[in-house]
Design brief:
Elements (H helix, E strand, L loop, with lengths): L3 E3 L5 H15 L6 H13 L2 H8 L1 E7 L2 E11 L4 E7 L8 H15 L4 E6 L4 H6 L3 E10 L2 E11 L1 H5 L5
Length: 167
Amino acid sequence: MKNLRVLQLVDFDQVAAVYRDAVISQAEGLYSQAQIAAWANHAHTSSAIHEALHRGYGLASCAANNQNIIEAFGVLDPPQRLSLLYCRGSASRQGRGRLILQSLESHAWQQGYRELHTEASQLSKPLLLRLGWQIDAEEKVIFAGEPFQRWRMIKDLSQQNEMGLDG
């Protein structure tokens, strides 16, 4: 699957829809209904995602037959921070998140960054751990008016270069 393309500001509506779908379709059992509702609506009630698209570097994984249909996306904002990584429930477990993440890591390496960091949810933590990210700290935060547990995580990108994944 190589249907990756760079995200543009005009993709905001699709990105917001993928964000909402990812939370609603995959967070049940991990989060309360109040947390899911607050998180799912965040894309439409906050300017944070639009600002990340404007400032950051993002990639979209698109439908096999249509580069205009976004199934998953990830954004670096600022360049050394994974700020967003979301996949529609119907498109999950197909390697899209892994491909986006590895491509963003490669991009960061090529831009001169040797370490990435993020704040991971219960949804993204398992994938990040499988791909060599390390937990730096656990924290509790208020997000969209609800309490959430998340993990600050880091990735040393020098491992990526040693494995020959630097482009």
